Recover the amino acids of this structure.
């Protein structure tokens, strides 16, 4: 039985139907292959020999000099599906090959004797930079191939469970935000999925099941457990001392990674969930320079994520920094990670942003992931199709989410504690909200109570008018909270970094007789950018600008730190 009905046709015709086919599968000329030979080594394979194995470390990019390579998808349920065949002049890789040690998402076998040029990750990045025009074509193809894998559900884990369950939404959100292909099966209408559930007989708390390509079955895993099972963290180099550790991969952190890595600094970026930060969950950003029709937060930050990897930044996701030792033993800071490992770097950029604020509502934690959401992605939007939903908040993020949800929900009740939006939201968003017929603005209104149970999730909401005290109830199954955020600075405790009364990091001030640079904290070598910084402009463009600006300060600090004492 195929997991993808309608896709079991000739591989060439399958991908030829997709737009931008020639850009996705370009054929290199003999002259172009000649230009890149210096970056690779010749490898030869016999007919039928496996060149790429799903779940194993991908060796790098193959450039085919002769012979063919058949690419197939293999999932953990025993299904093997043909996907595409490469021939002479093609290169075999996708965006994951920019980072050495990333696991392969598909199988590749030689058809006939094959001679190929193997270019490992480090030399592939060098090729992209040294051969600009050719590198642009290759980079575009690598990105488009990953897009095709995601859109077709090709490669990655198989998730088995109800599409509306909190566990499925949580894991789908994690994989989607990290640009990882996967596919989902509902045991209620798929026999293969029902057979797996019957075989493993999980309790309700052990669903969803996740089947990795090698057949390993995980029971309702955490994102860290899932990440390790599918090889997301296998590429991390232990014991390395980086020039810069960036904590947080929102727009500011990604900007720092791109500019620092492109200027020759060794960079590690840590994030406990996914790249993009809060901006990555935005359905549409319309006031970012250069995108007159708008762009989704995921699309914008995914480009930066790929760009950072192109220049050699190591992306450690999902990895949380739990604390930092600022004693700088042997000239480096030590960051302790949630898996018990440590990361050492000569300088640190704090781009950890802010954590979603949780209003004081009884039973709130009980319904998180079961009807209470802190972002609005297409996954959550599907859950509330043609339903009435509540959205709480009056900032730009709330406005963008309200407009997005209005395209899916029957009605969006937008609740604001104050008496207007002008002080907290861009005027273009206010105009759009007021022009959207299924958005109801409810000023001076707050949620009074949440009702439901752990199995069924949120079922009913009561809200209160703050002026009259009158309460109203409605059958509401999904509530979206955009009520601000608190700075994520707890991991800095004991380091000596000065904070303002709100917990945001103070930069550019005199401390202990020393004048800090504009984005430097009270601790030399520790810098702060973006939302976590006191006085910063809480906008995507502002964070990206600070991410670029801090790189000049990093160069100055690292140069001073390495200069010999006179």
């Amino acid at each position: 039985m195929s997991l993808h009905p309608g896709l079991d046709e000739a591989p060439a015709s399958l991908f030829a139907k997709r737009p931008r086919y020639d850009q996705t599968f370009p054929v290199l000329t003999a002259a172009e292959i000649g230009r890149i030979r210096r970056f690779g080594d010749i490898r030869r394979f016999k007919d039928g020999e496996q060149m790429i194995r799903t779940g194993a470390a991908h060796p790098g990019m193959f450039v085919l000099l002769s012979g063919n390579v058949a690419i197939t998808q293999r999932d953990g349920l025993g299904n093997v599906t043909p996907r595409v065949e490469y021939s002479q002049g093609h290169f075999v890789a996708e965006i994951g090959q920019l980072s050495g040690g990333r696991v392969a998402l598909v199988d590749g076998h030689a058809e006939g004797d094959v001679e190929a040029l193997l270019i490992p990750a480090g030399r592939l990045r060098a090729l992209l930079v040294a051969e600009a025009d050719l590198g642009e074509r290759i980079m575009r193809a690598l990105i488009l191939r990953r897009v095709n894998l995601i859109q077709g559900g090709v490669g990655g884990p198989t998730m088995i469970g109800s599409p509306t369950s909190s566990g499925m939404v949580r894991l789908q959100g994690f994989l989607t935000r990290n640009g990882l292909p996967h596919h989902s099966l509902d045991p209620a209408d798929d026999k293969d999925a029902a057979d797996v559930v019957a075989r493993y007989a999980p309790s309700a708390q052990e669903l969803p099941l996740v089947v990795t390509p090698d057949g390993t079955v995980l029971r309702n895993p955490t994102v860290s457990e899932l990440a390790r099972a599918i090889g997301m963290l296998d590429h991390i180099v232990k014991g390395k001392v980086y020039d810069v550790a960036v904590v947080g991969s929102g727009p500011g952190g990604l900007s720092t990674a791109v500019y620092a890595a492109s200027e020759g600094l060794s960079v590690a970026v840590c994030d406990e969930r996914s790249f993009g930060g809060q901006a990555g969950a935005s359905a549409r950003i319309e006031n970012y320079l250069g995108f007159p029709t708008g762009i989704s937060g995921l699309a914008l930050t995914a480009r930066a994520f790929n760009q950072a990897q192109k220049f050699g930044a190591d992306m450690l996701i999902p990895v949380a920094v739990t604390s930092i030792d600022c004693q700088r033993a042997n000239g480096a800071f030590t960051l302790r990670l949630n898996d018990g490992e440590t990361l050492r770097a000569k300088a640190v950029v704090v781009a950890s942003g802010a954590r979603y604020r949780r209003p004081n509502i009884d039973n709130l934690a009980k319904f998180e992931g079961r009807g209470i959401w802190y972002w609005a992605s297409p996954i959550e939007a599907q859950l509330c199709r043609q339903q009435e939903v509540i959205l709480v908040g009056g900032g730009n993020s709330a406005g963008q989410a309200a407009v997005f949800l209005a395209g899916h929900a029957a009605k969006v009740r937008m609740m604001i504690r104050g008496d207007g939006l002008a002080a907290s939201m861009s005027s273009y968003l206010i105009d759009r909200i007021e022009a959207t017929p299924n958005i109801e603005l409810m000023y001076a209104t707050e949620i009074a109570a949440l009702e439901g149970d752990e199995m069924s999730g949120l079922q009913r909401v009561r809200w209160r008018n703050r002026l009259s005290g009158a309460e109203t109830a409605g059958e509401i199954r999904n509530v979206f909270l955009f009520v601000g955020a608190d700075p994520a600075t707890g991991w800095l405790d004991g380091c000596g970094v000065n904070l303002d009364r709100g917990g945001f990091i103070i930069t550019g001030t005199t401390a202990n007789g020393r004048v800090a640079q504009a984005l430097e904290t009270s601790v030399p070598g520790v810098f702060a950018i973006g939302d976590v910084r006191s006085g910063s402009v809480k906008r995507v463009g502002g964070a990206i600008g600070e991410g670029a600006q801090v790189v000049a300060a990093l160069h100055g600090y690292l140069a001073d730190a390495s200069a010999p004492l006179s």
Notes: Residues 540-562 form the longest helix (23 residues).
